[in-house]
Design a protein that fits this description.
Layout lengths: L2 E2 L5 E4 L4 E8 L2 E8 H5 L8 H10 L1 H11 L7 E4 L1 H4 L1
Pfam families: DUF1488
Protein name: DUF1488 domain-containing protein
InterPro entries: DUF1488, Shew3726-like_sf
């Protein structure tokens, strides 16, 4: 199966300082987190939750591409993407 992203929902986790989103490999759910710092480097500092979510939306295509590069079947179901992953 191929990793897909049919659900466009995402949320900001204030405690972990990440944006969460989901991918699916067949029937298996794969959780992804994008570090807030990776999104902040794409915009300005002093960002709010809404700013992080907007930055995620603006970069969604490249974030999903990075998620596909990071994903390895049978290696786990949770991945954290950093600024280095987003290049």
């Amino acid at each position: 199966m191929t990793l897909i992203f049919p659900n466009r929902s995402r949320s900001f986790d204030e405690a972990r300082k990440v944006v969460r989103f989901l991918g699916y490999d067949g029937m298996f759910e794969v959780r992804f987190f994008v570090e807030a710092e990776a999104l902040a480097s794409r915009t300005a500092t002093g960002m709010s939750e809404n700013d992080y979510l907007q930055a995620f939306d603006a970069a969604r295509s490249s974030i999903q591409d990075a998620a596909m590069r990071a994903y390895r079947p049978n290696r786990g179901t949770t991945y954290t993407l950093t600024a280095a992953d987003l290049g």
